Amino acid sequence: MMKTFFSIIVIFLYLVHTTESMPSYLRKHHVYIYNQLPNNYKPLYIHCASGDDDFGHTLYSGQNFGWKFRSNIFGTTLYFCHFWCGSRQSAFEVFNAGLTTVHNTYNYYVRSDGFYVNYGPDDDLKKLDDTWQ
Question: For the whole model, what pTM was predicted?
Answer without folding.
Answer: 0.81
